[in-house]
Amino acid sequence: MGVKGLTTFIDNNHQQYFEKHQLHSTKVVIDGYGIMSKFYFAHNIDPGNHGGEFQNFYSHAANYFSNLAICGIKPYVVFDGGYDMDGKKFETMRERCRQKIGIVKGIIGSGRGFLMPTMASEVLKKVLRDLRVPFVFGDFEADRDIAVLANELSCPVLGQDSDFFIMDIHEGYVPFDSIEWENLVPCSSDTTDEMTTHDSRSGPRSSFIRCQRFRLSRFCNHFQVDACLMPLFASLSGNDYLQSISLGGFFGATKNIHQHRADQKQHPRRKGQNKFCELLHHLTFYSALPDCLNEVIKHVSPSHRSKVRTALQTSCDMYDVSQPSQVCDYFKADIVDLSSNPLVLDHGIPVPFLRQLHLGEVPTMCLNIFLNRMYFVGTQIENLSEKRSSACADELLSVLYGIMLTGVPVDDGGHNKAITVDIYDRDGMDLRCYKVKPLLEVSSFGAVLSFTKVFQSSKHQRKLFLLAVLEARDVNLDRIPVNFQLALLVTLYWFKRAEPTVNRRHLCALVLSWMQGVAWCKNNAWRLQTRSGDVGFDKTIHWPDNEIRSVLQNFDSLTTRKRSKDLDLDACHSFAQWVSCYRAAEYINAALSLVYPRNDMTVLFNGLLLHNLFFRLNELHPDHHPDWVQHSLFLHAPYACGLSQQIMAFFDTNLGDLFQARQEASPHPQMATRGRGGKQARHRNKRGAGRGGRRGQRRGGMKM
Predict the structure, then answer these.
(1) Left if phi > 0, otherwise alpha if psi is -120 to 50, otherwise beta: which for 76?
(2) Model's pTM, two decimal places?
(3) Quick check: 50 and 572 in contact, CB under 8 A?
(4) In angstroms, rounded to a whole number, what is the distance separating the alpha carbons of residues 217 and 459?
(5) pLDDT digits over 193-232, tens only?
């Protein structure tokens, strides 16, 4: 939910409300989306905003959880689920979408600003799976679930949400910004005191992490407010659930309501924070929530009292940590009984599908479509003068809407023919709502499979359906490693539909980046000794260790520095369309219970590398592409070279005519080079082609 301004209010009096703390030998409950933002933005991972630097993101996240393990800290991660059905956060979400479009505009104009990549959550889930960190998704917003779990485990919450200042978390709340997680302090025999969280059940530790811990009791003692009134304090201060209700009369009355009392209490006030101080001052005269709520309602006009009372009570309930949460059950047992879950009882969601939602196997987008008929499309760095990049995947998303809404009745007694989904996405530089009908029939297959019957269909039938959706039923994947199969099918789909059109150089850049990704993945799996049960690239593609090192070394300069000072908006737009198509296809794959293996974005998309490769391919004359690839990128790496050739041969087989047509319509930039610049370019090409020698390589090179 969030209380606007509360974090600043508390930070301005930091020493009064926080205590220094040594974190080790304990469990902790972590806000999933909060830590994701912390990892990505705090480390300036993609200063050029090229769509996602997922290898760096993975490394930072993995190092964080590795440091927790060194300190004997056992994390439990909880993510928010779908949009709440009451619609109270709708305006907040819509405003955030508008702000993100503004961020894109700012990045394009000045290079300033940061945008969370749309696939970042998939990478964080992979980190958690690889390191065996337990995690779960709530049904809806999970702040209360996080606090309830922390109290059950007798441990603190790690997060970055002002709501945690309000909830009665027994072992306290530790904001991410206060955690010095990179500076581990060695433990000695005398490093235990009242400022230490310790739980002998969490395993051995050799170090601790310094942080700052907030305790609600300390805050309430300072203001002499009963903790049971803090949910009302947050609600009246204006969280997402109360922002549309006017309480001006009440706030005006707080200045005079107790001015004649002998026991008048004074509290320090700061400019811009009078609202909080006045409200806290007023609450000191009450000890029970019902009495205080009645006092508030007195200052609301009679015609609005019922509405305001209901809204306030609903808001206060969101902070009530005394009620149990089903999230806790996922950390106690392998199989959780979901038969009494309201999503099952009241909305007919099959138990197996809901379980996959909770475990992060199915995206929460599916829940949003089913319950709210609404979806906010993730914003990407793209050319704002072109049609939105997500339009390339509109038909795929319509299939997903069909999967989630086939057979669902509507108010008029009819069926899904009358159903539409409200899709919020960019239109130029503005936010627009698109009314989209679910796709109910797929050419060459028939009726769309319903998510309620997915588990009744064979895997073969589900695969045929997905192939039909991607228009790839006749595509031969026999020689393609299983982990690349879905990515290649999506790439075929994208290549045919991208607007503006893409060409062979876009494909080459993707394929080359994938080879570096495989090497990084295999090297990283060994370095971190990951224990995931996933059938990943590190387990299905076998390269010698010396070749892995060679590939990483050969690609190093392309992954660590930007070759072009300017952001290539056309390239950004094209690759954003690929991400849109891949995400839609992966979500369909997930809704079909993983027809193809779950993929790894640290292999499939790393924006800086991808843009540098594309820039270099444009810089070189086409005749020099094979030599540059073979003798620079794949020096001493015959297996990687062979796999890239195999994948490009696949694209030649399936896209040969389009390659030829687009090459004739849009010649390579270097083909038109003239004069002195052309001579310099040809000199660079010749020099680049010869670098590295030919020893140890296959003959022929990668065809570009």
Answers:
(1) beta
(2) 0.88
(3) yes
(4) 54
(5) 445 555 544 445 578 999 999 999 999 998 899 999 999 9
